[in-house]
Specification:
555 residues; mainly alpha; Rossmann fold; 6% strand
Length: 555
């Protein structure tokens, strides 16, 4: 039996009522708590203590089928082979006969009746338990039942009557605190965990004992320690037994609970009821009722943004979904968000999480989102979207266009990657306009790495490819070549200096050097084929160190 750390007060109370039953006193105890909080473990403790003291124990559990056959739980609890027949006049006479059966058992000695998951007990069995609870006085009998928070019993009236008995005690199981979580980690994981590690475990599991145990199990399987260095690995863990446990409960809870929970796991903070409804394909009121039910179960937070109480549940549900199911929801979310003109970073996250697809619609959306991300400064995510679009594109011509766009986008922060994709685009380019644009940006990226001679060579190659098909574009590239050649000579000349010391407090401006300065000057200056004006503007930019705004791409 697992140690019940953090449940010491509850254990003392249960030990006391078991002892009272052995002394001839009666009581009703209702253990209530969320999924995985330890209700069944406490019932097992009651059974073990009672049997150790020589008290007879009868046990039953609410069935997995709903609705259950009449008196199924009573038959299991009392060992009856056949359920009693209920006459047309009602069930009171049958309830009285069953009560007499129990009273005769108690004449032989104290009795403990234990019923797990009373919310799944059939209506007549629950009605009889309430009938029995009202008549315990004078019997050496303890009735202990468990019920999860948020679950509706087969008969709310009978359950309310059970809770309304005078001598009943309710035990509400709260989440474990950080110290209890640390104690479990130490008990099963070895050394005392660091405070940071224990705090993160508490946050991810919400202090839910079952989830803590499953997390500890996975830590052991993967050989992960419990120190600060290992804490960074925790958010990525997704115990499969957590997913199976939650999925099983949700499948029994309502028709749409599991589907809604999966969609919420995919949206992860972006959830809005209308978005959930469209992704699930169910009515708005059904979504609202399902979300309310998941909140009452203790799986979702009440109020505000829709979010899981236990992050580990969200991670486990998400990771255990089939890849095609995850992709379907992510792509659906991206398309719905695009129709609402949502934030590009959010759409990009869903598109990238979905995996490659051959859909022209998604490829176009990837490109649109990449353009928006670039304008917002999210260059890495924009690049990832363009790379995904390239993978998804089936048309060679379209692939060249996308590689060209990606190469241009990368030139702002990764010149080596920019050159790689521009060269790939060059290998498949077919038109003079494509070759001209590739040559222009490939030369600038090469110059930015400090190799102006190589940049000039790139322009020579592309002038040869462009000149015959489009002399105007060829002239434009030759203009670039002339500017880079002149700036190359300027950069190789010794820099002038006034030799005076820098004034205290004078700002120091970080400016590119060598080929980078030349490329930046060209970007600032070039606006057409006015070579004289272009050279003058570039020389001025170099002389005045006015290159800080040189990030705009020349197109």
């Amino acid at each position: 039996m697992q140690p019940l750390l953090g449940r010491e007060a509850e254990i003392r109370l249960l030990d006391s009522v078991v002892g009272d039953a052995a002394q001839g006193r009666s009581a009703v105890v209702i253990i209530e708590g969320g999924a995985g909080t330890g209700k069944t473990a406490l019932l097992n403790h009651v059974v073990a203590v009672a049997r150790r003291e020589g008290t007879r124990v009868l046990f039953a559990s609410g069935g997995r089928r709903r609705p259950q056959p009449e008196f199924e739980t009573v038959c299991e609890l009392l060992g009856l082979r056949q359920p009693p027949a209920v006459p047309e006049s009602g069930s009171e006479d049958v309830f009285a006969e069953l009560y007499e059966h129990v009273r005769r058992i108690t004449q032989e000695g104290p009795l403990v009746l234990v019923v797990d998951d009373v919310h799944r007990v059939d209506q007549l069995s629950l009605g009889w338990l309430a009938h029995l609870a009202r008549r315990l006085s004078g019997l050496p009998l303890l009735l202990v039942v468990s019920v999860p928070v948020g679950e509706l019993p087969a008969s709310r009236q009978a359950y309310d009557e059970l809770r309304g008995t005078v001598n009943h005690t309710e035990i509400l199981l709260n989440p474990l605190g950080q110290e209890e979580v640390a104690g479990l980690l130490e008990l099963y994981g070895g050394p005392r965990p660091s405070a940071q590690f224990a705090a993160l475990c508490k946050r991810l599991t919400g202090g839910n004992p079952r989830f803590v145990h499953e997390l500890i199990r996975q830590l052991g399987q993967e050989g992960i320690g419990t120190d600060d260095e290992s804490a960074g690995l925790l958010p990525g863990l997704a115990p499969p037994r957590v997913a199976r446990y939650v999925a099983d409960r949700l499948a029994r809870h309502s028709a749409h609970s599991l589907t809604v929970a999966k969609v919420l796991a995919v949206l992860d903070g972006d959830a809005r009821p209308t978005l959930v409804r469209e992704l699930c394909g169910i009515e708005e009121n059904e979504v609202a009722n399902t979300i309310l039910g998941l909140t009452e179960l203790g799986l979702l937070r009440a109020g505000g943004t829709i979010a899981f109480v236990h992050p580990i549940v969200r991670t486990a549900l998400y990771r255990c979904m089939r890849a095609e199911e995850r992709s379907r929801y992510h792509l659906g979310a991206a398309k719905l968000l695009a129709a609402r003109e949502a934030d590009a970073p959010v759409m990009g996250r869903h598109l990238l999480a979905a995996g490659p697809t051959a859909s022209p619609e998604i490829t176009e959306l990837l490109c649109d989102v990449a353009v928006r991300l670039t304008s917002m400064g999210y260059l890495e995510q924009a690049t990832a979207c363009m790379q995904r679009a390239i993978q998804s594109s089936l048309s060679p011509a379209h692939r060249v266009k996308l590689m060209l766009q990606l190469g241009i986008a990368l030139s702002g922060y990764d010149h080596h990657a920019s050159i790689k994709h521009l060269r790939n685009a060059s290998a498949g380019a077919r038109t003079a306009a494509e070759h001209a644009l590739i040559g222009q940006h490939l030369a600038l990226a090469t110059a930015a790495l400090g190799d102006l001679d190589a940049a000039i060579g790139v322009l020579d190659q592309h002038v040869d490819r462009v000149d015959r098909a489009d002399p105007a574009l060829g002239a434009r590239l030759r203009g670039y070549r002339r500017i880079l050649t002149m700036l190359n000579a300027t950069e190789r000349a010794p820099a002038a200096s006034d030799g005076g010391p820098r004034t205290e407090g004078e700002p120091v401006t970080a400016v590119p050097s060598g080929g980078g300065r030349a490329a930046a000057a060209v970007r600032l200056a070039w606006r057409g084929r006015d070579l004289a004006g272009t050279r003058a503007a570039a020389d001025s930019a170099l002389a005045e160190d006015g290159l800080l705004d040189a990030g705009a791409l020349v197109t």
